[in-house]
Structures are given as C-alpha cells and as structure tokens.
Amino acid sequence: MKKYLPEGKIFNSPENRYYLQSERTMAEAMAQGLILEGHAVLCDSEHNIIVELPFGKGIIPRSEGAIGIQEGKTKDIALLSRVNKTVCFKVTDIVHEKGEVICRLSRRLAQEECIERYISTLTSGDVIPAKVTHLEPFGCFVDIGCGLPSLIPIDAISVSRITHPNDRFFNGQDIYAVVKSCDEDRICLSHKELLGTWEENAALFSTGETVGGIVRSIEPYGIFIELAPNLAGLAEPRENVRVGQAASVYIKALIPEKMKVKLIIVDVFENSVFPSKINYFITSGRLTKWVYSTNECYKNICSEFV
Question: Is 198-269 a CATH 3.40.50.1370 domain?
C-alpha cells in the first residue's frame, strides 16, 4: 500500500478496503502499524472525530486528531473541517463497549510517521503530489501527505498572473508541486515550474490559429490574455473588456526572441468554464534549475533549487 500521500488517495484502494472490513483485519493493521483511511462522519461536542466503519465505530480523540492540537499549535478548525471527508489514522486499540466494537484511532501518529519517513527526507527541487485543501487570496494551501499542510504562494502558481488562486485551482483538486525550500517546521512549495517553459507552451500554438483564452490584465497599452497557465499574449486595447472574461483570439505572431505573443481579439464573453485540467510538463523527479526564457531572449527568467 502506498503511504504518505494526501488524504483520500488510498481510501478506495483494495488494501484499505480489506483492512477496514472487520475487527479481525483492523487488528492485523494495528499489529503491522499500518496507516489506513476512513470516512469522518462527525466531530462531537468534545471535538473527537467519529469514523464510519463497516463493523463498528472508529474514534479519533481530540488530542489524536492532528499534530499540535494538544499543545495549542494547531487550531480545532483542523478537526471540524475533516467532517464528511477522508481521514488517515493508525489503529491504537480495539475494545467492546455496550455490544459495539470501538476502534481507537490516531491521526497524529500517522502524521508523525509521515514527517519522519517522508517529509523530513524532502529536499529543494523534489516534485511531489499534493491535494488542494483551501484557497486564500495570498495562496493555495495543499495537503502534502497525511493531512499535513503546505502553501503555494499566489505568485508561484503560474507565470501568467491571476487575481486569486481559484482562477487556477479548486478545493479537492489533485495537483503536483515542487519543493522550493525546507525549514524545520514547514515545506515551502512552488508550482509554475511544472507548467512548461515559454518555448514548450508556445509550441502548442501556431500563427493564424484562433484559440480560447482568459483576460488576465487590462493595461493602457493593451490587454493581456492567458492562452495557457505559463503563456499569455497581448492584444490591442478594446472597450467593454473585463478581467476574468473569456475570449476568442487570433494569433497574429509568436516571437521567441522577445517571448511575446501578438493577439487580435475576436470576441469576449462571460467565463462560465470551470478551472480547466492542468497540463503538466513535469510530474516527477527533482529539479535543480528551471529556465522559462528562450535562448534568444535577453530576459532571464529562471528558478534555482539549492
């Protein structure tokens, strides 16, 4: 069974379903120290998390709900927000109370193991899977393993500028990220490096095509329209255009030496499209340096991972 993935990734796996099926198999999981996942159906008045089990009930006591809860470093909203979602845990005890099988569980122990055996081994440049948990104006919070959070700042989401992370992501979305830096208590992430260079993105388009885009910025000298998360072009000024609108645009020119795309707006209209699937150019391995710029361009846009 794969371990140390964002919560929800192993819930429907055959192994996880096997261990959740009975008191006997849960006892096997406890003996092996396995990390399992279940569905949290309730957070009671004492902030204990109740997990649905086919043969009984699982209880994650408040103090075992997350790293830092007992010390006050983690707020209880981290427990309340797990209701009706998947939670990871290790089984610590199985008892019988009033004719019911009760499994005592610990999400904290699963998180501690994740830190020790996975997160502590990460280094700058590592490409990892992540899951979007919530979006704020300043960035995107993600689960990088067993419910442990990290942040992708808004300016690290893509080369094309966005006004809010919900322009790019939605809650519950599975994405990839790259480790930017590692401190003792946190992992800082980036995302734009996985979305391709100017040249890689420009290769997806051709002069003379009419394609779709999103209005990202309106300046006195023109309108910036995103063709892909890491590629935007400039069209001439036009009235009655607003940021966030969808557009159909004619590609007038692709200019590698200036990293420019010249566009002509064909039409603009309200954008009713859900954030589109992200086209990743990199989904694994480790980066040491990423260069967005073309060889011909005087600009040097790059990221280094040290």
Answer: no
